Amino acid sequence: MAGDPEIVSFVTPLPSGSTSYFVDFPSYFATEPLVTTSLQNDTTSEIVPYILSNVSTSGFYINFGGALSNDDYNLNVSAQVIGSHSIGDAADSYVPGQYNGTTLGVLATKIYDEEIGFHTSGSARTTEIGLLANWLEGHLGELNNLIYTQFSGYNPEGFNLEEQSIIRELYLSEYNRKAHRRVLRGIDGSDGSPDFQVIREGDSMIQKSNKNVTAKSYREAYLDSQERVKTLVYAYNLYGARPNQVSGGDAPTSGQSPSVDAYYN
Prior knowledge:
Number of helices: 6
Structural class: alpha+beta
Strand content: 15-25%
CATH topology of one domain: Immunoglobulin-like
Radius of gyration: 24 Å
Number of strands: 8
Order of helices and strands: EEEEEEHHHHEEHH
């Protein structure tokens, strides 16, 4: 391999049975590039968490939480020298490879940057956005059950602001529920970390935050978010539902109102 590219995009297959792979760039970069990735498998909906490490001018490592279960995984990779193009200039376009420009990719980026945002740049942010986009796609069925729709894929047709607001709140509700559960594991000691509130030695004192208060706060945030989901779903179904049939004195005459005619067609 040789060259001095500014940006490359490619797809590489990942065989099953391992938790770590080294991915070679088709050409060497002059400096360490910014790498964005997305994992694709058309035979399963399983979400596999992963992180990137040791990015160099020749390639990088991808590390999974567990061994890949089959040989149908493909990694979509986009790598570029920072500053050579406009990637990252706009939050709406800075999303992992296969989500780039998709409805769920843009929504995942907005949710992460506006609601969570532990990382403001780099591969860690990219990985988090990819996982979030996967979560959104994987929970479209739950959204469909709540509002009687049939959305699917990363570019669901007719997926407007109203539907996006509901699945956004569904994610935040799940985020708070998981955070509450993690704190509870720390309280009962199941995470293996030592538990103490105050340590005193002479005039010195170390005081930890109260885990019970933290757990209660997450619990309240979860319940508030659940209540908001109910409110959004109720409003959507109330004002967005279309009657199957309108007859009698309430039925409009065809041609009387073009906007109504279009609504029922």
